[in-house]
Design a protein that fits this description.
Chain lengths: ~425, ~425
């Protein structure tokens, strides 16, 4: 099930969307059975791009922030999903510790932390916020402009457990993508549930592994639905050992880009799409907020100036880029107030609980919207005026145009489950 | 977790309510652990009475109707709860059959059926409606005034399975309280999930057993919370072998009523309550919509006229009343537009998903509101204007005054789990 949110889609429903709407019971059953075999991450947000002819995830964030941007109506859904997650993970849970980003102190990020705290409090836990930033040495209350406040406490490591003064959590929720690597203070916490696990951290995770898993998921889903999985999947390739600074590996990268563009061109021809294909280059490792570069022609890489190259050479957090993910570019057809927009779907456990549009008025439909100037617009819940129409069959009258977003986002969530299973360093323990 | 609905409560928060609000994490954890041991019924509605000094359930309906009266915002919550229920009961489910009441064809009842169908459809099932009324011989589409329509099909029994033409459900949802007894067509369906089970039917279930289980639940909960369980429990007693028509057993009933009134009087004295105690007499078996009679003095029973007695002698469905449940009356302090109101809390699986007020402008605070002239007012979700107040701690600012209703309603749900376990005719099979 996907809540009925109002999307910016007003055009006719195309074949892909109609196929998903018609197959809703089969799709939901398919997910139910998948979740029996694969445990979803505690939470995730999937960034989607809808080109009209295809709809694909372009990244899956396992440390989602922006909970504060969601419509208020989603709160009960998030709480209910959090309850379901806790029941599975640790029904005896009393205390939950949230670990936020180390240095981010913007009011919007802290409002996100407050919202997460609120969700898990209402799910019936004592929730406190502990920083693993070594600079945080004493408890601090930070007031936010909206009237909320957050109390940030220094964490205390005692043997195999992490906690706060007089607070021993059974579950630790990471809202810190660990962009500079895995801190020792989080290692070997075998007595507590650490969610998501350390191998979901930004320096450990590889986007290429995620998209390989996503391709597998998309193929299986496509087979069930009877569609070409390309319609929901961005073709991806990995180019290892690229040294942007020294200019090494660039030729290899060019030929890989050429090869991928050729594949996309064939697909465009097959479907009669008259657009110019492009790819996006991203660092395979490192934070999702690291710059992504659109490339329409491999030759562009030769002409790259020193500035552009040095921008690609390190991640946002200063780590050197070695492997480059080449990903089919998916343009976005959606507009909110005439600005280019891409939907971001929020999930808690296996449930879709809300969505926002990331909007950037100064970017074009082929560009990355994760850039200064972007803003977020919550997707509202559809209300009765949009709901059943007289004379229509119940449930079919006003189609839920958010549904397909909820489906593709959950495919990305499922791919993350596959990914975390495949990369679990302790996997053999459970075999 | 209980969604934040707007109640009619505007007075100060009393001690009981404050205790529940403060203990929220402990209460939620207590429920989580209880639900590990006891499976909740698929759905239920709990009718509560709030006297100010005490809050108690007065009946727990295991075949709840009125889903159409709930606020529209609750739909996603109900769908998410239905998904969680299906995942536990039968994750492979494709088809669900709803069995409605046999003879009720009012638009409001059918709108309730449509809403249930919608909830389970959105949870990812193919849902059809099959009547077990032998009079329904062919498929019929009934149009409702609101533009919805419902297709009613005759059920087909084939060996050990029940279904429709070309429709073989794995789960059957009863929205029929089986007020005239268990029909043979529903017996021995060992291959399908029948929810709620047959021993929840109105002629099998005994209110006295439910309230005995409720007392056990209330005692355990009261101990955990450190409160006298009387504050959430209506004292009840059973008087067997009453023959209203012949006037037999009435004296015994009088002395039982006297004894119960004395108990209530002692409690009122203990708490300094200056109200006149009363009891409610109900048939121990039979539909919940069967008349309930308030009695302030056992002498009233002598003076009962023939008409009143013959009304008590048979249930709504014409079955003779034998055992009488004597229950402490709980007056209701709530008012909606100056009319006496009682909250009805809807639950799906273990989740509170919404509520309505049952309102009766012509009844007093001590009377049964289940009578002609009653209407339903949905409880709306609280929106941001009621939510966090500047300067207040998050989550504590605007107290959720629906919370205590959600707690007591879930205690009644839990008592139903105990009850159905204790009365399960096939229990030994699973031991």
């Amino acid at each position: 099930m996907v809540p009925h949110l109002i999307t910016a889609l007003t055009g006719p429903i195309n074949e892909l969307e109609q196929r998903m709407l018609d197959a809703m019971p089969a799709i939901e059953r398919w997910f139910r059975l998948e979740w029996m075999e694969h445990t979803p991450p505690i939470y995730a947000s999937a960034h989607l791009r809808n080109a009209g002819f295809k709809l694909a995830p372009v990244n899956t964030n396992l440390f989602p922030r922006g909970w504060n941007y969601l419509a208020e109506d989603m709160l009960p859904l998030a709480v209910q999903a959090a309850m379901a997650a806790i029941e599975k993970i640790c029904p005896e849970a009393r205390n939950l510790l949230i670990i936020p980003e180390n240095h981010t102190r913007t009011p919007s990020y802290l409002a996100n932390v407050v919202q997460l705290q609120r969700i898990f409090q209402r799910a019936g836990l004592n929730v406190r916020v502990g920083s693993i930033d070594p600079g945080v040495k004493k408890t601090e209350r930070i007031e936010l402009p909206n009237g909320d406040s957050v109390v940030l406490e220094p964490v205390i490591r005692t043997g195999g457990r992490l906690g706060l003064k007089h607070f021993d959590p059974c579950t630790i929720l990471l809202n810190n993508e660990l962009a500079t690597g895995t801190p020792g203070i989080l290692e070997d916490l075998y007595e507590q549930y650490l969610l998501p696990p350390l191998h979901a951290g930004a320096t450990v995770r590889r986007k290429s592994t995620h998209f390989k898993c996503y391709e597998e998921v998309a193929k299986r889903f496509g087979k069930m639905l009877g569609i070409d999985h390309w319609l929901i999947h961005p073709i991806s390739a990995l180019c290892a050992d690229v040294d942007w600074a020294q200019g090494q590996g660039i030729e290899r990268l060019q030929s890989e880009v050429d090869a991928l563009l050729a594949k996309v061109r064939r697909k465009y021809k097959e479907y009669g799409i008259h657009e110019k294909p492009f790819v996006i280059l991203k660092a395979d490792q490192g934070s999702y907020s690291t710059g992504a570069m659109p490339v329409h022609d491999a030759k562009e890489l030769e002409a790259l100036g020193r500035k552009a190259r040095s921008k690609m050479a390190v991640t946002k957090d200063g780590l050197p880029v070695q492997a480059v993910l080449i990903q089919e570019g998916v343009s976005t057809q959606e507009r909110v107030h005439e600005a280019v927009a891409e939907p971001v779907v929020y999930m808690m456990d296996r449930y879709v609980i809300g969505g926002v549009y990331r909007v950037h008025p100064e970017r074009s439909m082929n560009e990355n919207l994760n850039a200064p100037g972007a803003s977020f617009v919550p997707l509202a819940f559809a209300h009765s005026t949009q709901m059943p129409q007289p004379g229509m069959r119940p449930g079919t009258s006003a189609p839920n145009r958010f549904y397909m977003y909820g489906v593709v986002a959950r495919l990305a969530m499922l791919a993350s489950s596959y990914e975390l299973e495949a990369t679990d360093p302790n996997a053999e323990v459970y075999d």
